[in-house]
Amino acid sequence: MSGYTTSQLREWDKQHVWHPFTQMQDWEQEEPIVITRGEGSWLIDSEGKRYLDGVASMWTNVHGHCRRELNEALKAQVDRLEHSTLLGLAGEQSIILARRLAEITPAGLDRFFYSDNGSTAMEVAVKMAFQYQVHRGRAERSRFITFRNAYHGDTLGAVSVGGIDIYHSTFRPLLFETIQAPSPYCYRCEMGCSGPESCGMKCLDALEALMIEQGARCAGLVIEPLLQGAGGMIVQPHGFLRRVRDLCDRYGLLMIADEVATGFGRTGRMFACDHEGVVPDIMALSKGIAAGYLPIAATVTTGEVYEAFLGRYAELKTFFHGHTFTGNPLACAVALKSLDLFESDRLLDALQPKILRLQERLAEIACLPHVGDVRQCGMAAGIELVEDKATKRAYPWELKTGVRVCLEARKLGIFSRPLGNTVVVFPPLSITPDELELLLDGLEQAIINVVEE
Ligand SMILES: *Cc1c(COP(=O)(O)O)cnc(C)c1O
Questions:
Q1: How many helices (DSSP H) and strands (DSSP E) are in the chain?
Q2: d(C-alpha 2, C-alpha 349), whole Å
Q3: Cβ–ligand 1 contact at 118 (below 6 Å)
Q4: Which residues have C-beta within 8 Å of that of residue 397, sequence separation ≥ 6?
Q5: pLDDT at 103
Q6: What's the confidence (pLDDT) of residue 144?
Q7: CB atoms within 10 A of CB 152
Q8: Which of 89, 318, 381, 417 holds its CA 20 to 30 A away from the CA of 360?
Q9: Is the Cβ atom of 243 under 6 angstroms away from ligand 1?
Q10: Ligand 1 mean position to 119 CA, how many Å?
Q11: Residue 226 Rama label (left phi>0; alpha psi -120 to 50; beta)
C-alpha cells in the first residue's frame, strides 16, 4: 500500500490526472473510487469496498484479476528480461507467442506485426492494406469502406475509419475521408427495414452498390466482426460477415477485421470470424490478448500480403512502421500463459452455459417498460434504455440516463460503464455463475431504481 489516505489520493487525482472520455468538470465534483486491488471478478477500493467488474476493466480482462498463474508468469519473465527491442533483434517470447497465435487464428493468418494497443493495431492494418495495394501496382486503391457506428480507436487513422459522430465529428478536418456503409442496426439504421434479417440484407445491398461504384478505388474494408462494441453493442445478423467477405473478394478489397474487442473468447469462440468460417486478410488483436494485464497488440495477415512487401532494399518496399515497445517480453509472457489457461480451464466450454444464462436474464430484463432493446453476442451484451418503448424514442443524451444507472449500480457493488443509454454487460470471461447472477440482478435493480419508478 502507498500509505496515502483516500482523500489525499482523490485530491491529487483531481489536481493531476486527466481521465479519458471524461468531462473533468463533472469529475471534479465527484468522489472518485480509488482502486487499489483486484481479486478474480472483483475490484477493491482504497476503503476496502468491493465492486464486481462488470466491464472487465474496459473489455480486457479474461481470467480475472490477479490470477496466480498469470502473476507467476509475469514475475518469472521480469527476472529474465523486462524489455528488448524488435528493431534489429528477435525476442524469445514474441517468437513463441506468434507461433502459438498462428495455431489458433483463422487458417492462413500467420504473419504477426506487434504493437501496443488496439488503435495502433488498426493504424498498422490500414497502412499495411494501402501499401500492399501500392506494391501490386494499384496505388489508386487508396480509400477504405467503413461502417456507420464503427469504432476502431482514438488515434487519427483509427478515428478516420470510425463512424461515431459524437466522438469523431470534432476531428473531421484532421481525418482522411472514407466511404461509409450503413451498418445493420435495424430500427436505428434508417434503411426502413422490418427486422434484423431484412436489415442485414438491405445493408448488404447498399454495401454492394458502394463497391460497384467505388470499389476499384478502395484498398480495403474495415469491420468489427459480429459486434460493433463501442457503437452500442450492435449485433450483426448471422451470415452478414460471410457475405461481406464474399463482396470483398468480388471487388478486390482487403478485408480488415477488427477483433480488438471480440477476440480471445468474448463471442463464445476464440475469434468472432470463427462463427462464420471467415478468414479476413488482416486482423487486429489487442484488448484480451494478454488477459487484461499489459498493453500489447498484434496485426496479423496472410503470406500473400506479407510477400508483397519483399524486395531489394532500394525498392523501398519495406513496411516503415514501428512502435518502441513492440513485442514487449513481459506482455508476451502473460499472453502465452493466458493461452495455456484457455486450455487448462476449458474456458470456451465453461462459457457456453453462462452465455445461455445471460440470454435468459436479458429476455427478462427486456420486459421492463423502459428497455427498448437487448442485444447479445456471447459474453458481451447491451441493454438499451428508451424514453418510449413503442416508438423506441431515445432519452435525450443530456439526461445521461446510462450514466445514472451505472452510478446507481455502483451503490449495489457493481462497476459498469455505459455506452450512451446502453447499459453494458462485459464481465471477465472467468466470472462464476453466481457472480453473473449478482451482476444482472444488480443492473436490473439499478435500471428499475433510476428509470422505472
Ligand atoms: C477498444 C477498441 C479499439 C481501440 O483499442 P485501444 O487499445 O483503446 O486503442 C479498437 N477497436 C475496437 C473494436 C475496440 O473495441
A1: 15, 17
A2: 40
A3: yes
A4: 166, 420, 421
A5: 98
A6: 98
A7: 30
A8: 417
A9: no
A10: 6
A11: left
Range 33-63+346-451: architecture per CATH: Alpha-Beta Complex (3.90)
- For residue range 92-104, what is the model confidence (pLDDT) as tens digits? 999 999 999 999 9
Fold match, 33-63+346-451 / 72-344: no
Separation CA 183–CA 180 (nearest Å) = 9
The Å distance, Cα 152 to ligand 1 centre, comes to 5
φ and ψ at residue 425, rounded to 5 degrees: -120, 115
Domain boundaries, the chain: 33-63+346-451, 72-344
- What's the DSSP call for residue 172? G
Rounded to the nearest angstrom, the distance between the alpha carbon of 329 and the centre of ligand 1 is 22
Whole-angstrom distance, CA of residue 347 vs CA of residue 136: 42
pLDDT 10s digits, 323-362 = 999 999 999 999 999 999 999 999 999 999 999 999 999 9
Ligand 1 centre distance from Cα of residue 208 (Å): 27
For ligand 1, atom 10: residue with the closest CA: 152
Q: How far is the CA of 367 from the centre of ligand 1 (A)?
A: 32
Dist. CA 58 → ligand 1 center (Å): 9
CA distance 42 to 362: 22
For the four alpha carbons of 333, 335, 339 and 340, in that order, the dihedral sign comes to positive
Atom of ligand 1 nearest to the CA of 119: 9
Measuring from atom 6 of ligand 1, which residue has the nearest CA?
Answer: 118
Helices (DSSP H) in 4-116: which residue ranges? 6-16, 24-29, 56-59, 68-78, 92-104
| C-alpha separations of 422 from 155, 161, 452 in Å | 24, 23, 15
As averages over each run of 10 residues, the pLDDT of the chain (453 residues) reads 91 97 94 97 97 98 98 98 98 98 98 98 98 98 97 97 85 94 77 75 94 98 98 95 98 98 98 98 98 98 98 96 97 98 98 98 97 97 96 93 97 97 98 98 98 79
196 Cβ inside 6 Å of ligand 1: no
**H runs (alpha helix) in 155-259:** 156-160, 165-168, 196-214, 240-251
State the pLDDT at residue 198.
80
> What's the CATH number for 72-344?
3.40.640.10
State the distance from the centre of ligand 1 to the C-alpha of 233, rounded, in angstroms. Answer: 13
